[in-house]
Write a structure and sequence with these properties.
The complex is a heterodimer of chains A (about 230) and B (about 375).
Chain A lengths: L1 H34 L2 H13 L4 H21 L5 H23 L8 E6 L7 H12 L3 E4 L6 H11 L3 E5 L7 H12 L7 E5 L5 H7 L3 E2 L3 H14 L1
Parallel strand pairs in A: 1-2, 1-3, 3-4, 4-5
Helix pairs in contact in A: 1-2, 1-3, 1-4, 2-4, 3-4, 4-5, 5-9, 6-7
Chain B lengths: L20 H12 L9 E3 L4 H10 L4 H9 L1 H12 L11 E2 L7 H4 L4 E4 L4 E4 L18 H17 L4 E2 L8 H8 L1 H10 L1 H13 L1 H13 L17 E2 L11 H16 L4 E7 L1 H4 L2 H5 L4 E7 L12 H9 L4 E5 L4 H7 L5 E5 L4 H12 L3
Helix pairs in contact in B: 4-6, 7-8, 9-11
The chains are: A alpha/beta (about 230), B alpha/beta (about 375).
Chain lengths: ~230, ~375
């Protein structure tokens, strides 16, 4: 009986300490990502993996919440684009370590997204930033580049099982191409398969409503929130 | 305020469509001094109007054809001349042609490449490895430098009595570095390689005065004023400092990397109008205004949710309270509300209008604005 009691106490001791250790790892990983410290993120994720912390837990409770914090800091004006970028890079580096461990699990990406700047427009900063932040939120992202024709968006939907299309335009002269692309997707019979979000300097919610897009985001951080909401509705 | 030229330095300009040129210039100079003669200056013009009209024609062009279109000296000046044919220029709408190969042309003077779209061009990032930066040298024989010279010369030959010729849109400093490196890569560099950023920023301002003087001399030798894409002339040295890249970065980074360049590029000018391209750049306002040579601001509220102007009234009033002349972009629908809300002091209004009758009618309303 005594032995059994000791075993239980020992198991409880291990459980509590591992739990505490796990919480500490996750907190430290999260802090490293928020600081954009890539090296620290790699070391901490590796240490957590070595300590048998579940890879999915590292991602769901360490890496992804950190990027949510980064998005919040950006919206609050405490972070700017460079800070978002280095955080997203740290997050991605951490993700690379746990990816092989996640491969065997049933874990799927948060969604599959194709992003592109519409035909006639070669601006790519906003589009790239949205792609990076979506990856940081666990999405699988296909970057179609700039000057993307409606046909290329349609091809991406067909070949990549895309849940969501993200279109960007910086010019008032190229924003009508968003409507052209949306209509082309509808004509191709694919509109019910994908959600469409749009963004860029001249874009408004009213314009998104007018062309029948599913949403508009004024910045990369809010594009991630919108994408999560829309993909979860599916 | 560093206005070094005086009324004695003025010379005569005759423009068919602008018989009131002298009075218009007096209003502009009063505005530079944050004063009003009879009404605030007003400019009627859509931005890139003639380029936007041409954009549909070239939308189907291949990249090479687009470049040829931009490089067609005669065509480019022709398009401008046709756009002003028979027009009367009301208010302070100066008919100005400026040679234009897009905002990254300054970066391309260092033998980097531009890719041409319909209404603007885009820089092809050149620096993949830091050693690539060693190749960046100002090259006056470079195709872009030569083309800007050629456009300038050709326009000067054709401008007599019809229009003024200005200098191209010059973006030294961090915008130039972003063009060489790629804007997002530069964001990483600010953390990863700040010394390299500083080195590139130094290079991106090193030849500015030489380049500015080169085109200024070309123009002044032919009796032209100092004017560029803003269409606001000066008999002295007018410059439009800007740093669009700064919209992406914190105040700390701007003060560290952008401000020294602004101090440098503005110091030899008589009139500096800083182009604030939206709220992202406006967050650096205090740093920008810490440079005493910054004479005035152009506030671009932008499009999308940043439009219309009425949401920025308190921002503009704050600038007025600080005696800073400011250009304000208005839509014609907003004029009445704007005039009701604002005092005209220190304002320079820009309006996109449909026709001359509308312009005359708007001027009458603005003349009654006190």
């Amino acid at each position: 009986m005594d032995d059994g009691k000791h075993d239980l106490q020992y198991a409880l001791f291990i459980h509590l300490n591992l739990g505490v250790a796990m919480e500490q790892y996750l907190e430290q990983i999260s802090q490293a990502v928020v600081k954009g410290d890539q090296n620290a993120t790699i070391e901490l994720v590796q240490a957590a993996v070595d300590a048998q912390v579940d890879a999915n837990t590292i991602m769901q409770k360490g890496l992804i919440p950190a990027m949510s914090d980064v998005g919040r800091l950006y919206e609050q004006g405490e972070y700017f684009v460079p800070e978002m970028l280095i955080s997203a890079r740290a997050m991605k580096a951490g993700l690379e370590i746990i990816k092989p461990l996640l491969a065997g699990s049933d874990l799927k990406p948060a969604g599959t997204v194709a992003v592109g700047t519409v035909k006639g427009d070669l601006h790519d900063i906003g589009k790239n930033l949205v792609g990076i932040m979506l990856e940081g939120a666990g999405f699988s992202v296909h970057d179609l580049g700039t000057d993307v024709s409606p046909e290329q968006f349609i091809e991406a939907i067909r070949t990549n099982q895309v849940d969501l299309i993200g279109m960007s335009a910086l010019l008032t002269t190229t924003m009508p191409m968003m409507e052209t692309t949306t209509n082309a997707i509808t004509r191709a019979g694919l509109r019910n398969q994908v959600k469409i979000i749009i963004g860029g300097a001249p874009i408004t919610q009213a314009y998104a409503d007018k062309i029948g897009a599913d949403g508009f985001a004024p910045d990369a951080s809010q594009a991630v929130k919108l994408a999560i909401n829309l993909v979860n509705q599916r | 305020m560093h206005r070094q030229d005086t009324l004695q330095d003025w010379w005569e300009i005759e423009l068919q469509g602008m018989p009131h040129f002298d009075m218009a210039m007096k209003r502009v100079y009063a505005w530079f001094e944050n004063e009003i003669i009879d009404r605030p200056p007003v400019r009627f013009m859509a931005h890139n109007a003639f380029l936007e009209r041409a954009s549909e024609d070239i939308a189907h062009f291949s990249p090479a054809e687009k470049k040829n279109w931009w490089f067609d000296t005669e065509l480019q000046v022709d398009l401008f001349v046709k756009s002003i044919a028979g027009r009367q220029f009301h208010g302070e709408t100066f008919p100005v042609y400026f040679p234009n190969l897009g905002p990254d042309v300054y970066a391309a003077f260092y033998d980097t490449e531009l890719e041409f779209g319909e209404i603007t061009s885009y820089s092809v990032p050149f620096i993949q490895q830091w050693e690539d930066a060693d190749q960046l040298v100002l090259d006056q024989n470079n195709q872009y430098f030569q083309k800007i010279e050629e456009l300038t010369r050709h326009a000067i030959e054709r401008c007599e009595g019809q229009f003024m010729v200005g200098y191209t849109d010059l973006h030294p400093g961090l915008d130039c570095v972003a063009a060489w490196r790629d804007p997002l890569q530069l964001c990483y560099d600010l953390y990863d390689n700040p010394d390299q950023v500083r080195r590139l920023a130094d290079l991106a301002i090193a030849d500015f005065e030489y380049i500015y003087n080169h085109f200024d001399t070309m123009l002044k030798e032919k009796g032209q004023l100092s004017v560029s894409w803003m269409g606001i002339p000066s008999f002295g040295r007018m410059h439009i400092p800007s740093c669009d890249f700064s919209a992406l970065i914190s105040q700390e980074f701007f003060e560290q990397f952008g401000l020294p360049i602004l101090q440098c590029e503005s110091k030899t000018m008589t009139h500096n109008i800083f182009h604030i391209d939206g709220k992202g750049v406006a967050k650096h306002l205090e740093a920008i205004l810490s440079v005493p040579e910054i004479h005035a601001l152009q506030w671009v509220q932008g499009v999308g949710d940043d439009y219309p102007i009425m949401q920025w009234i308190s921002f503009i009033k704050d600038l007025q309270a600080r005696d800073i002349p400011v250009i304000v972009d208005l839509s014609t629908e907003d004029i009445d509300d704007f005039m009701d809300a604002m005092d005209p002091k220190g304002l320079f209004l820009w309006l996109a209008t449909e026709n001359e009758l509308e312009e005359i009618e708007i001027l009458k309303r603005i003349e009654r604005w006190t």
